């Protein structure tokens, strides 16, 4: 597999933890991603993977297989998200074809995206870059691309979104969002008053046009509402437009 440097290449060398018991796949991905400036640490056990993530905070992201010996990938995902230090680390799940229920559960537990096996390494690279890009901290922009401070603060009613700090405040609370949830909220809020289809949101957030699991965006919306809405069953901010998609209310 040759080096694949597209426009989405990120500056600097990144570090990713791959938790997968398929040694052959692990070696292939370590070689391929390594040629694209992403260093891969391969661990074949869920418990050891969690321990490695806890002891080494330099990992920029996690590639997580769902079929693991011992505890499965869903439990690994749940434990990662339950750890305060790992709230924002992006998680890309690797799932078996047709495991739609596992995909939904994985997203509900806090995974940012998923990829079905077998997959094209180029697609894995593109999806991984997308989730890593979304999780970049403030200040990661290239020189000369600083965003004016006031424009980085969005206010709608009791909801405040700080785009630079990647923080949200609502009615005196500071809910913690995953990187995907934050980018989803950003996309909706910056298009306040405009109806966005599921397809538009998925394409905008992934950065590439991929075949997507139709209802995965609904799972993320549901989790986001649970964090920012006073009453998720009667949302003030993110409203559903039946048969079309979602719209962010300007009034809030």
Structural notes for this entry:
It is built from eight helices and eleven strands. With 252 residues, it is α/β, with parallel strands linked by helices. 35% of the residues lie in helices and 20% in strands. A hairpin with a 2-residue loop joins strand 6 (153-156) and strand 7 (159-162).
Question: Which term fits the overall shape?
Answer: globular
For the sheet with most strands, the description reads: 5 strands, parallel
Q: Unreliable runs, pLDDT <50, ≥5 residues? A: 1-10, 137-150, 208-212
Q: What is the β-strand count?
A: 11
Question: What would you call the structural class?
Answer: alpha/beta
What is the CA-based Rg, rounded? 18 Å
Give the helix tally: 8
Could you tell me the mean pLDDT?
82
Distance between the termini: 50 Å
Helix content: 25-40%
Q: Which percent band covers the strand fraction?
A: 15-25%
* Helix and strand run: EHEHEHEHEHEEEHEHHEE
Strand order, largest beta sheet: 2-1-3-4-5
Question: What does the secondary structure layout of this molecule look like, with pairings?
Answer:
Layout: E1 14-19, H1 23-34, E2 38-43, H2 46-55, E3 61-65, H3 73-82, E4 91-96, H4 100-109, E5 113-117, H5 121-134, E6 153-156, E7 159-162, E8 167-170, H6 179-189, E9 196-197, H7 198-206, H8 216-228, E10 238-241, E11 245-248
Parallel strand pairs: 1-2, 1-3, 3-4, 4-5
Antiparallel strand pairs: 6-7, 7-8, 9-11, 10-11
Helix pairs in contact: 2-3, 3-4, 4-8, 6-8
């Amino acid at each position: 597999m040759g080096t694949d440097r597209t426009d989405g290449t990120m500056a600097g060398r990144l570090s990713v933890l791959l938790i997968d018991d398929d040694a052959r796949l692990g070696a292939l991905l370590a070689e391929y991603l390594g040629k694209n400036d992403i260093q891969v640490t391969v661990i074949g056990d869920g418990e050891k993977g969690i321990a490695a993530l806890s002891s080494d905070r330099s990992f920029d992201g996690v590639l997580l297989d769902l079929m693991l010996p011992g505890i499965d990938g869903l439990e690994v995902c749940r434990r990662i998200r339950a750890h305060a230090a790992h709230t924002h680390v992006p998680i890309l799940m690797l799932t078996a074809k047709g495991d739609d229920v596992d995909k939904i559960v994985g997203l509900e537990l806090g995974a940012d995206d998923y990829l079905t096996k077998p997959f094209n390494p180029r697609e894995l690279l593109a999806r991984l870059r997308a989730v890593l890009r979304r999780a970049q901290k403030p200040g990661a922009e290239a020189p000369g691309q600083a965003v004016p401070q006031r424009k980085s603060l969005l206010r709608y009613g009791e909801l405040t979104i700080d785009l630079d700090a990647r923080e949200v405040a609502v009615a005196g609370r500071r809910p913690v969002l995953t990187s995907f949830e934050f980018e989803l909220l950003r996309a909706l809020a910056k298009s306040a008053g405009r109806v966005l289809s599921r397809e538009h949101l998925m394409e905008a957030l992934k950065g590439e046009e991929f075949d997507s699991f139709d209802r995965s965006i609904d799972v993320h919306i549901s989790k986001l509402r649970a964090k920012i809405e006073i009453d998720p069953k009667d949302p003030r901010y993110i409203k559903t437009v039946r048969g079309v998609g979602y719209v962010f209310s300007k009034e809030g």
